[in-house]
Amino acid sequence: MKNQMIKSLTFQDGNAEKAMNFYVELFKNSKIINIKRWEKELPDVGGKIMQAIFDLDGNIFMCSDSPAIHDWNFTPAVSIYIECENEEEIQRLNSKLSENGKVMMSIDFDYGFSQKFGFIQDQFGVCWQLNLN
């Protein structure tokens, strides 16, 4: 993994493991590589993820549960962009990622720059752009 750009997701609500498991199930050829946990005795984060590394179809991600609550969180200004292979894939990802999330740009609208495009903030606050050319 040396010299590779790794996407890092910091969760302030204790949902790092739930989000990671959701993403690993959602994307083909995905797996959890390593998990380090906070010591069980620590208040608020005990047993939660200190740092986990996972692979989503060849893309390495890292996530953690932050013991401190920060003034920042996920923002739509930074998103994960997915080039979908076909109609079935964009429909499946759109459906799963939008469950309990927020659709910011619907795949049912023709934006004029691709065959299909969607922008979603998932249930964990992470933003995704789905594109089908």
Strand and helix map with partners:
Blueprint: E1 7-11, H1 16-26, E2 30-37, E3 49-56, E4 59-65, E5 80-83, H2 87-98, E6 102-105, E7 116-121, E8 127-132
Parallel strand pairs: 1-4, 5-8
Antiparallel strand pairs: 2-3, 3-4, 6-7, 7-8
Fold and architecture overview:
It is a single chain. With 133 residues, the chain is an alpha/beta fold. It contains 2 helices and 8 strands, in the order βαββββαβββ. The chain has helices spanning 16-26, 87-98, and strands spanning 7-11, 30-37, 49-56, 59-65, 80-83, 102-105, 116-121, 127-132. It has a 4-stranded mixed beta sheet with strand order 1-4-3-2, with helices on one face. The chain starts with 6 loop residues before the first strand and ends with a strand.
